[in-house]
Specification:
The structure holds two protein chains of two kinds. In chain A, strand 1 and strand 2 (78-79) form a beta hairpin. Chain A contains five helices and two strands. The radius of gyration of chain A is 16 Å and the shape is globular. In chain A, 23% of the residues are buried. Chain A has a domain at 15-56 and 89-125: Cytochrome c-like domain (Cytochrome Bc1 Complex, Chain D, domain 2). In chain A, helix 1 packs antiparallel against helix 5 (115-125) and helix 2 crosses helix 5. Chain A has a two-stranded antiparallel ribbon. By secondary structure, chain A is mainly alpha-helical. Helix content of chain A is 56%, strand content 3%. Chain B is built from ten helices and no strands. The longest helix of chain B is centred in the first third of the chain and has 23 residues, at 2-24. Chain B is globular. By secondary structure, chain B is mainly alpha-helical. In chain B, helix 4 (70-77) packs antiparallel against helix 5. Chain B is 50% helix and 0% strand. Chain B has helices at 2-24, 26-37, 50-57, 70-77, 92-104, 107-110, 113-122, 134-140, 145-148, 160-163. Chain A binds chain B through residues 72, 74-77, 79, 95, 99, 102-104, 106-107, and chain B through 57-61, 81, 85-91, 155-156, 158-159, 162.
């Protein structure tokens, strides 16, 4: 029984980074299946900082330092840091990643992102 | 003896009259009572739906369902792609689930505490914003603009928890109000 508990505890402690990487890879693979890729860190970074619509960009809410919390610019609700190195749990559910990419592309750039853009954004974010 | 009986009758009728007055001021009494003892007879039921907190509370204060009538929630959940100028789209299943939760616990369904006050104030209206309900306006009419919109620590009446220190629990009484960066009490 005891070894079982230990193993479970160990698994729980290590699950997050593994799960995070798996989640991002899973989402990116889905885009690849649809014909997108390869994905680039630099392209993702450029997109993150671009203003394509009404002068909006990601850092308006997420802040300049992605290891720090951001703040919703209208409601002032705190937003957890985006960098997986400090917030692994944000990248453990593919549906959640997709939901935010959909919503936030539309708000920030006034349109849905392409699979290529989303893959690039994730490539940038996952290494932070 | 006779005098004692008359005295007793007078006292009893006096108490009955007082009772009638109290009855007609039931709402006010309840509020006073809540204030005095620091609990929340008139407040709203706290959010008890983790999905709702997650989906809606990530961007703004998770308004308790009892703050708006079912018709308001219905409209709101049908227009998430343009949610006060923001995109708040949800997949169809999640949206349906949250809509059911919100409507079942709406102000005009639970009809208790402040929810009843809100529902009664509407007279058929179904505003999309809590701040547009007559009840809300009445409760906040004495708050100067410069304490809220003109206050960088608050900014908007829609940020309940900026001043209502226990808003997350559904407690909104005056004694739990602290307007940040504002000298003096909440009222």
């Amino acid at each position: 029984m005891k070894p079982f508990v230990l193993v479970t505890a160990l698994l729980a402690a290590t699950a997050s980074p593994v799960l995070q990487a798996e989640t991002v890879t899973e989402v990116q693979n889905r885009y690849r299946t649809g014909g997108a890729g390869p994905f680039h860190f630099e392209r993702g970074e450029r997109l993150w900082n671009s203003r394509q619509f009404q002068e909006r960009r990601c850092s308006d809410c997420h802040g300049a330092d992605l290891k720090q919390p951001g703040m919703h610019r209208r409601t002032r609700q705190p937003i957890e840091p985006m960098a997986p190195s400090v917030a692994q749990h944000r990248y453990t559910d593919p549906a959640k990643v997709e939901k935010w990419l959909l919503r936030n592309c539309k708000w920030t750039w006034g349109r849905a992102c392409t699979a290529q853009e989303k893959g690039d954004l994730l490539e940038y974010l996952k290494r932070l | 003896m006779k005098q004692w009986i008359i005295g007793g009758l007078l006292a009893a009728s006096g108490m009955m009259a007082a009772g009638l007055v109290t009855g007609s001021r039931y709402e006010g009494e309840r509020e006073e009572h809540g204030k005095r003892f620091g609990f929340s007879l008139q407040d709203v039921a706290p959010v008890q739906n983790a999905r709702y907190t997650e989906e809606c509370g990530s961007c703004h204060f998770a308004y308790q369902p009892g703050l708006l009538p079912a018709a308001s929630w219905h409209k709101l959940m049908g227009t998430l792609a343009d949610h006060f100028g923001e995109n708040a789209e949800l997949d169809a299943d999640t949206a349906a689930q949250l809509r059911r939760y919100l409507e079942a616990n709406a102000a005009d369904r639970v009809y208790a505490g402040r929810s009843r006050g809100i529902a009664n104030s509407l007279r058929g209206m179904a505003p999309l914003r809590v701040t547009e309900t007559p009840y809300f306006r009445r409760q906040h009419e004495e708050i100067p603009q410069r304490a809220v919109q003109g206050n960088p620590d608050v900014g908007s009446f829609s940020r309940c928890a900026a001043c209502h220190t226990r808003a997350g629990e559904g407690v909104y009484n005056e004694h739990t109000v602290r307007i940040p960066g504002w000298a003096g009490r909440g009222d």
